[in-house]
Amino acid sequence: ATTPVNVTVTGAAGQIGYALLFRIAAGDLLGDDVPVRLRLLEIPQAVKAAEGTALELHDSAFELLDGIDVYDDAQQAFDGTNVALLVGARPRTQGMERADLLEANGGIFKPQGEALNGAADDAKVLVVGNPANTNALIARSNSDVPADRFTAMTRLDHNRAVGQLAAKYGVRVGSVSKMTIWGNHSATQYPDVTYAEIDGKPIGSEVDQSWLTEEFIPRVAKRGAEIIEVRGASSAASAAAAAIDHVYTWVNGTKQNDWTSAAIVSDGSYGVPEGLVSSFPVTASNGKFEIVQGLEISDFSRERIDASVNELAEEREAVQKLGLV
Ligand code: NDP
């Protein structure tokens, strides 16, 4: 019925890409009445593998899938795109310095930011590839696409926190609302339960402080490492599910009396320096994220938010020195 929405996925032949593409094609990203056209971007040596995934997508006979194209050129892959999921990134290898990691990713996200100038007017960009917040900063700084279209993913951290809270309270995840992730998608992130509710009832004052500081916060922040240890491979399907949730919420809005977490370009709210791509409590409506305002921040929270935001500021300084932003 409607015209297909163009969705570009970078790193399409990777683990997350493999989990993500089938859910997008099934209609989970935008809605089960919205046809999609998939555009897969890969580096030349992974194009063949992406083509293999494209064959499997054909074989799945998804009714909403209008077509699939595979590219090794960012300009082409982003031309006219409506939703860009930037999953491909240069992983940190053993012994690699942070500056080297940032520089290698600058070589990916700077040209991708430039190529996004050819995207559709309503383009929405989600960076998943790590270091996601700073990769998003680099892309944004090298693009004419408005700053409010650039986001990075902390929805997986958010979902992990919601899962842990639901388990602790013996309820379904749907009972948990107003969870917040602040800061960087890294081990310094701050999962904040101050305003969290179970079935609409605030839990803040009754939370067991030692459980919070010794179990909950580190467990959420280090869940990625736990998955690697138990599964023997890094999280992929849960990261894909979070990317789906992030975009679905951005396009279709948050629920009444709830919010979610997303890393967006700071406007200076809550003392987060303007321009940093940092995670906030956000609502979404009419295709726009907005930071939830007016929350009182305790000393306990302030210290943790500042620690993660300082890390983001250091990453920004490092990429400034490299001439990437
Ligand atoms: P994955 O698909 O497993 O991961 C992709 C990226 O997502 C990594 O940067 C990874 O970070 C990040 N990520 C963010 N959150 C999570 C999470 N919760 N769990 C796991 N990963 C997370 O990587 P693969 O190596 O399987 O695939 C990457 C693909 O990207 C390759 O096919 C490669 O060719 C491609 N690539 C494409 C580029 C392009 O299109 N221009 C550029 C660079 C690479 P982390 O490394 O920290 O786990």
Automatic annotation (TrEMBL):
Indicate the family of this protein: Belongs to the LDH/MDH superfamily. MDH type 2 family.
Q: What is this protein called?
A: Malate dehydrogenase
Q: Where is the Lactate/malate dehydrogenase N-terminal domain?
A: 6-149
Q: Where is the active site?
A: 185
Q: Which InterPro entries match?
A: L-lactate/malate_DH, Lactate/malate_DH_C, Lactate/malate_DH_N, Lactate_DH/Glyco_Ohase_4_C, Malate_DH_AS, Malate_DH_type2, NAD(P)-bd_dom_sf
SUPFAM superfamilies assigned: LDH C-terminal domain-like, NAD(P)-binding Rossmann-fold domains
Q: Which GO terms describe its biological process?
A: malate metabolic process; tricarboxylic acid cycle
Ligand binding (substrate): 92, 98, 130, 160
- Coiled-coil spans are none
Catalytic activity as recorded in UniProt: (S)-malate + NAD(+) = oxaloacetate + NADH + H(+)
What Pfam families does the entry give? Answer: Ldh_1_C, Ldh_1_N
Q: Which GO terms describe its molecular function?
A: L-malate dehydrogenase (NAD+) activity
Name the EC number(s): 1.1.1.37
Record domain Lactate/malate dehydrogenase C-terminal: where: 154-319
Q: Which organism is it from?
A: Actinomycetospora cinnamomea
| Summary of the function given for this chain in its UniProt record | Catalyzes the reversible oxidation of malate to oxaloacetate.
Provide the binding site for NAD(+): 11-17, 105, 112, 128-130
Please provide the record's keywords in A-Z order: NAD, Oxidoreductase, Tricarboxylic acid cycle
Q: Write down the PANTHER family for this protein, in alphabetical order.
A: MALATE DEHYDROGENASE
